[in-house]
Design a protein that fits this description.
311 residues, TIM Barrel, 2 domains, 15 helices
Length: 311
């Protein structure tokens, strides 16, 4: 979710009902070096009450030092990402690379828990590949090192986001560990979340890709479908205004294109809307394009049956 879960997106999700949000993945090494762009990722919105900082790294000492720096930001949780499969992260020994070395993961988590009284969570996958599925061992290492919770995406690093998440593994890990296990993977509606709770007995559900262009997934009013297009586009415009407030117009308007195009998924005549949005470069551009698209959809006089196809 790097490049997506910035302050504005998190706030929009909170307004829709998200109970807890995490920052984008942040390099512990960059924190210790005082990198300004990295510190920008720690910007916290006024509405972010329950807020976690997500770190990645491969050196226990560096991560412990980073924690001593970021603790002043007062996060509710500090999360160690051991699930990222992006090559530039993995090649440094961080992210999913730590799944291949549970002993090293243990040492890093221990250094984290000994350096702060802020709860530490750990995000993992099933294993490196189909031949090395070791999530019970990795989960136990995190628990014994003092982690307060485990976030579990039951796909291997090699799978990336292909195939189907094995929710049975979440149920298995939940029985194996004493600490809370938060399930992740293939959650694209509240109905999916309810199903995961029922099938796995997970202590919580972590939503990632399913919230892009669809923060309504957190809203109890929309169980297995999205709201009507007027509310979708109103929320998209609020997202734009919130991003401009936190990032400034120039930067926000360039970062927003991937978000606002996602809001139009499944809507009529969305291709032309997306084609216009990818060229937007100012708040006025976004307002004009979104309002004109809403007016166009209203002129089509869509029926309730049309609304159902938007989900």
């Amino acid at each position: 979710m790097a490049g997506f879960t910035d302050t504005a997106f998190r706030i929009i999700c909170i307004r829709s009902g998200a109970a807890f949000v995490f920052t984008e993945m942040i390099s512990a090494e960059a924190i210790t070096r005082g990198n300004k762009k990295t510190f920008d990722l720690l910007q916290r919105g006024r509405e972010e009450r329950f807020w976690g900082i997500q770190l990645f790294g491969s050196d226990a000492g560096v991560i412990a030092k980073a924690i001593s720096i970021i603790r002043s930001a007062d996060p509710s949780v500090i999360d160690l990402n051991c699930g990222c499969s992006v090559p530039k992260v993995v090649k440094t020994g961080s992210g999913a690379a730590l799944l291949r070395n549970p002993g090293k993961l243990y040492s890093i988590v221990l250094a984290m828990t000994e350096s702060t009284d802020i709860p530490v969570s750990v995000k993992i996958r099933s294993g490196w590949d189909a031949a090395s599925v070791n999530f019970p061992e990795v989960g136990k290492a995190a628990e014994e090192a003092g982690a307060s919770a485990l976030m579990f995406h039951p796909r291997t690093k090699s799978q990336g986001f292909s195939g189907k998440a094995s929710w049975k593994q979440i149920a298995s890990l939940k029985k194996y560990l004493k600490i809370p296990v938060i399930g992740s993977g293939d959650i694209f509606s509240r109905k999916d979340a309810d199903k995961m709770f029922k099938e796995t007995s997970a202590d919580g559900v972590l939503i990632a890709r399913g919230a892009i262009g669809n923060p309504f997934i957190f809203d109890k009013k929309y169980n297995d479908q999205k709201p009507d297009y007027n509310h979708i586009l109103y929320t998209a415009l609020e997202h734009v205004k919130t991003a401009v407030r936190y990032k400034g117009e120039y930067r926000a308007c360039r970062d927003l294109r991937k978000h606002i195009t996602a809001y139009s998924k499944g809507l009529p005549e969305s291709a032309s809307f997306r084609n216009r949005i990818v060229h937007a470069s100012s708040l006025k551009d976004y307002e004009k394009i979104i309002k004109e698209y809403a007016a166009r959809l209203n002129s089509l006089k869509l029926s309730s049956a049309d609304f159902m196809c938007l989900s």
